Amino acid sequence: MSTLELFLVIVIPSAFILLVLILFLVCLTRYSHIKDRLEYCFNSRKTLAESFLTTFNYISSVLQNVKLDSEQREELKSIYSHFKSMDLEKDSLYEIAQIDSVYERVLNALKQDNKDNETLDFVFEMRRLTSFSVYLYNNNVKAYNSAKKGFINSRLAKFFRFEEVEMFSKEPYKGQTTIDFQLNRRKK
């Protein structure tokens, strides 16, 4: 066997094995990246649920410490009963957003009637923290969706059947972008 034949017998299979190994490592890192992004989504969903739990639990404080008319009181009780019947970690984010928008509308009306109420100030501060949790969750969902794009990533996502993650939005199937969030914050 000549040195050229020996070289071809050693280098060609070694190069093929090395190419397969590199392709495997690239796929493994891409899979790991997508999986990490999905975990970030799940963790921020839990944080979002805890934030809403904290926010909605202050309804009882508002009922006790703020002057309300009968319509506002009934509306807050209705929101509270809807909230208690929901599983914040598993229910549709659209449903949670609808209840949250009604709650926000009622609180804004109360704030106009009761300008210097410490309870309402505290509840609004908690709502500000909740809006940050919504922003964080939506950013994690966007990062996950962008991680599923690309030649290798899209095929891995289909092969391993990575699930779709719903964005938090008050309108169905429409998420807020970072710019929308910043513009909404400036308007307030």
Let me know the number of strands.
Answer: 0
The figure for the number of domains is 1
Structural class: mainly alpha
How much of the sequence lies in strands comes to under 5%
Stretches with pLDDT under 50, minimum 5 residues: 175-188
Distance between the termini: 82 Å
Give the number of helices: 7
In helices, the fraction of residues equals over 70%
Which H/E pattern describes the elements? Answer: HHHHHHH
> Could you describe the largest sheet, including whether it forms a barrel?
none
Radius of gyration: 26 Å
Mean pLDDT, all residues: 87
Mass-distribution shape: rod-shaped
Describe the structure.
The chain crosses the membrane at residues 6-28. Keywords: Membrane, Transmembrane, Transmembrane helix. Mean pLDDT is 87; it is low at 175-188. By secondary structure, this protein is mainly alpha-helical. It has helices at 3-57, 59-65, 70-85, 93-113, 118-147, 151-159, 178-187. The chain has one domain (3-187). The protein is rod-shaped and about 100 Å long.
Question: Key terms for this structure?
Answer:
7 helices; mainly alpha; 188 residues; disordered C terminus
Summary of the model, kept short:
By secondary structure, the chain is mostly helical.
Helix-strand blueprint:
Elements: H1 3-57, H2 59-65, H3 70-85, H4 93-113, H5 118-147, H6 151-159, H7 178-187
